Amino acid sequence: MQWGILGCGRIARKLVNSMKVVEGAEVVAAASNTPGKAEAFCAENEIPNAFKSYKKLISNRKVDVVYIANTHNFHCETALAALKAGKHVLCEKPMAINAAQAREMVEAARKHKVFLMEGMWTRFLPAMVQVREWLQEGRIGQLKQIHASFGKPISTNPRINDPNLAGGALLDLGIYPLSFASMVMGGKRPVAIQAFCELLDTGVDASSIIHIKYPGRVMADVKCCCIHDLPNDAFIIGTKGSIHIPANMFQAQAATLNVGDETEVREFPGEDQESFSFQIEEVNRCIREGRTESQIMPLEETVMIAELMDALRAQW
Q1: Tens digits of per-residue pLDDT, 253-284?
Q2: Which of 25, 74, 75, 235 is most deeply packed, by most CB within 10 A?
């Protein structure tokens, strides 16, 4: 499977490093609209083809899959161009900045019969696979509460402060605990939401506490922040026990199951710069099997989470 990268920043380097440990796949091209950036990126990472525009990479026949790694505000238009050209797409999270964009991208993928997935890489980590197995086995009994947070001081980054670049804590950080809660709930749609938010002077969200009520009397408490650190861990609580994912939950390498007096700890150590490999393998597997979406990160769930974030911003 031959991959091309659109956008040559820090996150793109992580995909390149992760690709090195995946069999049957390679990065063959990268593109940037910034003069000289693609050439430097390709030289640094030993990628054979550098393109001076996204359009040129998208039209290249050697590329099977496109990874979209530019800023959130450009995800939709970039993905649509790739999808309409018949390319499979892995789009960095958040896939879109609102639900309308997400729906448009999903419709384009289905119309052109190509694969599309939001790059919620955390969901594919072995620790998260273990968490889903414990839940499916009913190890903690009936699900009752979910707690998750992600916060770190990144508000000095100009992009985070800029509403025109889809800045704020929610899209950059909050999507992790929101997607985690959705994963635990099996993609079920919330019954009710209530949120409290602190805004930066530019109008983007700086810090928020989000309360979600799900079907079956399950409650979730989600926090995100871009001005200071949060615990960055996660708890799933049931009638018989609990599951804890220590910090940093978004790059989970361990999970603990507590049932009564018994504790089971599972550790999955790995290199952070190779942690995208699990989602890359999922994309490759789905495409080889003729699937146009992942059952682990379904498109309808991506749209639903985008709708939830729209509702949160409307409250703020």
Answers
A1: 999 999 999 999 999 998 888 999 999 999 99
A2: 75
pTM recorded for the entire structure: 0.96
Is 22:274 a contact under the CB 8 Å cutoff?
Answer: no
Collapsed DSSP state (helix, strand, coil) of residue 102: helix
Closest CA to 131 of 11, 262, 256: 256
Chain-centroid distance, C-alpha 266:
23
The phi, psi pair for 158, rounded to 5°, reads -55, -35
pLDDT in tens, 226-254: 999 999 999 999 999 999 999 999 999 99
Using alpha carbons, select from 130, 115, 110 the residue that is nearest to residue 294.
Answer: 115
CA distance 64 to 133: 32
Which three-class secondary structure state does DSSP give residue 128? Answer: helix
C-alpha closest to that of 97 among 158, 171, 159: 171
Q: How crowded is residue 132: how many other Cβ atoms within 10 Å of its Cβ? A: 14
Q: Is 179 exposed, middle or buried (0-12, 13-18, 19+ CB in 10 A)?
A: buried
How far is Cα 109 from Cα 95, in angstroms, rounded to an integer?
13
User: Whole-angstrom Cα distance, residue 151 to residue 154?
Assistant: 9
Q: Give residue 64's Cα distance to chain centre.
A: 21
DSSP 163: G
Task: Answer for the pair 166, 126: CB distance below 8 angstroms, yes or no.
Answer: no
Helix (H, G, I), strand (E, B) or coil at 9: coil
Asked if 12 and 69 count as a contact pair (C-beta separation under 8 A), the reply is yes
CA-CA distance, 125 to 137, in Å (whole number)? 19
| DSSP assignments along 207-250, one per residue | EEEEEEEETTTEEEEEEEESSS-----EEEEESSEEEEEPSPGG
Q: Is the peptide bond before 94 cis (omega within 30 degrees of 0)?
A: yes
Count other Cβ atoms within 10 Å, centred on residue 62.
11
Q: What residue type is 223 in one-letter code?
A: K
